[in-house]
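FIELD: query
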Amino acid sequence: MKLAYVTTYDAGSLKGCNEWSGTGYYIAQSLKNQSIYIEYIGPLQDAVTSRTIHKFKRHYYDLFKQKNYQKDADTLTLKHYANQVAKKLNSTKSDIIFSATVNPIAYLECDRPMAFWADGTFANIHNFYPQYSNLPEEVIQDWHQMEKLALQKSKLAIYSSDWAAQSAINDYGADPNRVKVVPFGSNTDSPFNSETIKDVISSRKTDWCKLLFLGVDWIRKGGNIAYEVTEKLNESGLKTELTIVGCPPMVDSPIPDFLKPLGFINKATQEGQDRIKQLLMESHFLILPTIADCTPIVFAEANSLGIPCLSTTVGGVPTMIRNGINGQLFSPVGNISDYCDYITNLFTNYEDYKNLALSAFHEYESRLNWRVAGLEVKHLLETIL
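FIELD: result
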């Protein structure tokens, strides 16, 4: 099988794949590892006139309409992308046109089947993420049109969560038979197996709870909830520490002793990867009480090291985290006591915690890794040949 892999950026290397946390690169690698030939089509260029128009519109909407202009679904830009892809396809013998996200293929006309793998629809993210709120009406219309066209033209629409897949069907009338769900995998490989992970889990303290918050947005990722949970656990008698990576804690100074802010750690470097891996292995839980997310890959990375995750029932998170199997989900407006009671009960019955941590690792091995994801997508692509 040969794929023409279309992305607006360079997905052939992590250095050129800064967008989407490198997911476009890992998608390609997961398929190459299934003996699928990948021909990269990207990066794609914006037209010079489009850049000028976008700059003008951004200033216009900001100054005169107090609206948040976004260029991602601009019709002229997408048609320019489609023209570039069409020209490159003339010299390829690919069996399927495959894309990470729908932007570069929405206006593409070709004689080969198309498919894509995305983490959400516009209906999912509109007024869900701050950057996709307060949009001008023309942006909203362009984005909905882009989603509709891509779904109409694609033989296969793969999403990383049930939440996104249902939106494609319910909000855009996609054929349910063409819509599939395959979660993304961990961007780091686990060095452990089912036996050696037991030693990692057993090495964690039994009388001191260590929580890890990994996120670059304190508000959206629920940093305030993580802080309050840590504070309440300490007040209740369970010594608890919260390590914060990615952003400064937004709390009243002075910062209490139970908070350990480490700032930003660059995962693009081996040193950064090793540091985060070590922090995860030392922690009992990854806590990310997010208020807006599609499918955070950090959950799969935590599970790969036997770390259960605590999060919320928003967006695509419930596809990643299954209650009692690889973590626990709470209401985004839930009570702090719910988190505390859950953690305290596991520490009171510590064998239950160890079983949960081992189960989290098994979720990574069986479901939340790129090998499993790539194999499943390969089987799906074979159905449209």
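FIELD: remark
The chain has a mean pLDDT of 95.
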